[in-house]
Design brief:
This protein is α+β, with helices and mostly antiparallel strands and 183 residues long. The protein contains 5 helices and 11 strands. It has one domain (3-180): Sandwich (Jelly Rolls), CATH 2.60.120.10. Strands 1, 2, 3, 4, 6, 7, 8, 9 and 10 form a 9-stranded antiparallel β-sheet that branches. A two-stranded antiparallel sheet has the order 5-11.
Length: 183
């Protein structure tokens, strides 16, 4: 189940939304694309890119992406902690970020005005993060996800860290999932 959990900047819970359509509308009002795509049972980067070719082409044509790839992290990945820590600090990008979750889940945190919008994405969810939006991503201590990543710049993922410690005061992915989701 996808979730939208909203906190103030000190980590106090404000409200929760579980309805995908309501989450999509709230995020759209903030300039964030949040869609649900059908899942296709494929594995491996080339098979995934081939299976989702029509959806990828639509997104590429709409937003002028120049490259896509597939990122996959599992609980047994030898660099899972290093990879998790790389995304945990608040940062921005000069381009906008789009991810489509094929399996598993992760949480994007969008720091907009004086609130943090924690969006738990799961398989089938596509999310965009507008350029310049302070945010971070948490895949959890035992990550499990596969996602298509879209890029508008040749360098791919380039972060401009804000220096804020806000990601340390907002509940992490594992805490949100254990509080609000039942398996």
């Amino acid at each position: 189940m996808s979730l939208l959990v909203v906190y103030d900047e000190t980590g106090n819970f404000l409200w929760l939304e579980k309805d995908h359509q309501a989450i999509s509308q709230k995020l759209r009002d903030m300039g964030v694309l949040f869609e649900r795509w059908s899942i296709k049972p494929v594995k491996g980067q080339e098979d995934i890119l081939s299976a989702y070719q029509d959806d990828i082409q639509r997104i590429n044509e709409t937003f002028h992406f120049i490259s896509v790839d597939v990122a996959s992290i599992t609980p047994d990945h030898p660099k899972k902690e290093e990879l998790r820590n790389m995304f945990l600090k608040e940062h921005t990008h000069s381009d906008f970020e789009v991810r489509f979750f094929i399996e598993g889940r992760g949480t994007f945190y969008l720091h907009l005005q004086d609130k943090v919008y924690a969006v738990v994405c799961e398989e089938g969810d596509l999310i965009s993060v507008p350029a310049g939006t302070p945010h971070w991503f948490d895949m959890g201590k035992n990550p499990h996800f596969t996602a298509i990543r879209f890029f508008t710049i040749p360098e791919g993922w380039v972060a401009n860290f804000t220096g804020s410690n806000i990601s340390e005061v907002i509940p992490d992915h594992d805490s949100i999932v254990s509080s609000w989701l039942t398996s």
